[in-house]
Amino acid sequence: MSKFMPFAATMIKNLFSKPVTTAYPGKPAVYPERSRGHVEIDIAQCIMCGLCSRNCPPRAISVDRASGTWTINRFDCVQCGYCTEVCPKKCLTIVPGYQTPGAEKKEAVYHKPVEEKAAAPAGGKPVPNLEQCVFCTLCAKKCPQEAITVDRTEKKWELTAEKCVSCGLCATNCPKKCIEMK
Questions:
Q1: How far apart are CA 55 and CA 58, in angstroms?
Q2: Which of 20, 43, 130, 170 would be 110's cystine partner, CB 3.0–4.6 Å?
Q3: What is the Cα–Cα distance from 84 to 41, expressed in whole angstroms?
């Protein structure tokens, strides 16, 4: 009989033991200590600079500044946290827990409210002190929108204001601290 029903002992044991998934929806799940969680965004704080999408190893995040949308493909995201580290406004966070499962594979799309898209970012635009500037081009290299151009030979520093998202990375990374956000 042991060859005929090898699972009989397990079946009888399971009939008289407590279920493994006791009170799952009723009690909140306890996540393991090393659980990575998932990425959440405070879309109202986002300046649509695109640094998160450029630093995402699996390219799970996309930012469309023109339409004001931030999109994440949850199936591609590996919860590495690079996006949260490079975000200049710290509007991305890793939240413990898992996303609610859905019936179909889809991307999570967040829309920036229309009134916030039209308004100028609160940080202001970068203004350099050209007397202190050494024209090292670091501000231009760090600009996520390539809004700054620096010509070392002609000692020129130019900002394309339409491209600037007022993230402040140019001012933060300036070794001479000669850029102010005004």
A1: 9
A2: 43
A3: 9
